[in-house]
Amino acid sequence: MTTGRAQGDRLIETVRETGSTSADLAARLRSGELVSEGYWLVTDRQTAGRGRQGREWFDGVGNFMGSTVVHRRFGDPEPATLALVAGLALHEAVSPCLPVGTSAILKWPNDVMIADAKLAGILLEREGEAVIVGIGVNLASAPQLADRRTTALSAYGTLPDRDDFAATLARHFATEIERWRNFGMGAIINRWLAVATPVGTSLSTGGVGEAPLTGGFAGLADDGAMQLRLADGTVRVIHAGEVRLADRDR
Predict the structure, then answer these.
(1) 7 vs 100: which has the higher pLDDT
(2) Where in the chain is the domain with CATH 2.30.30.100?
(3) Where are the domain boundaries for CATH 3.30.930.10 in the chain?
(4) Which of 6, 10, 57, 204 has its CA 20 to 30 A from that of 217?
């Protein structure tokens, strides 16, 4: 069963179950279907969702699982910076759901945290000249994971309606895309840093089987890459990879 919900020039299509909303959009694009910007595919259950590093994407009932498409235009910033754009949209969408004194925090490159627990994640995938932005938010429940803490908005006394949350997120994402195109990366980076892990936060990065590289968060480079200040004072620029809170994540 499919339902559609118009929000201005945005359309949110909801399905009861699918393998992956991002995979569905990729298949539509490969088939030549025109998937317009502002369109979102949202699902109640996702049987083959995936996160970074090939992780399974938790599909708890009542949570948000959805994807949208950004078509690259001449002069757009680099596609990878859409993780920052999506993070800002998510921050705007979840912040009103939190009690006074509790704040959502962005962790590079694609996580939304509350304290040291993950609330939401973002996954970018290229399909030709399009970028598919997949987003998962723990509204009702969070998975129990061995390697990191997780949380859900319901733990803070509120459980947003999934469809209302989808409409709110779509609205904020459209606004952030417009800013990304019209005002460039400087404005995006400044706003992202204002709600991100504080400069100096101890972080570690490294792939599976690699020795972790640990240092203090030193902000973002002009292209949105993370800067990590090592113990010897040098700054390493990190363009991709898994990033953890060094003092708390395993």
Answers:
(1) 100
(2) 202-245
(3) 2-194
(4) 57
Q: What is the pLDDT of residue 50?
A: 60
pTM, 2 dp: 0.91
How far is 18 from 37, CA to CA, in rounded Å? 21
Q: Rounded to 10 degrees, what is the CA torsion of 110, 98, 68, 74?
A: -60
| pLDDT given at position 8 | 53
Query: 80, 118, 70, 75: which is closest to 248 by C-alpha?
Result: 118
The CATH number for 2-194, chosen from 3.30.930.10, 3.90.79.10, 3.40.50.12370, 3.40.50.1000, is: 3.30.930.10
Q: Which CATH architecture has domain 202-245?
A: Roll (2.30)
pLDDT digits (tens, 9 = 90+) for 23-73: 999 999 999 999 999 999 999 998 876 654 445 555 678 999 999 999 999
Residue 223 in contact with residue 81, Cβ under 8 Å?
yes
Percent helix, strand, coil in the chain (nearest 5)? 30, 35, 40
| Arithmetic mean of pLDDT, 141-152 | 86
Cβ atoms of 24 and 17 closer than 8 Å:
no
Q: Is 61 helix (H, G, I), strand (E, B) or coil?
A: coil
Give tens-digit pLDDT for 43-53: 999 887 665 44
C-alpha angle 80-174-131 in degrees, rounded to nearest 5: 30
Q: Answer for the pair 160, 153: CB distance below 8 angstroms, yes or no.
A: yes
Give the whole-angstrom CA distance, residue 181 versus residue 176.
9
Q: Contact, 38 vs 25, CB < 8 A?
A: no
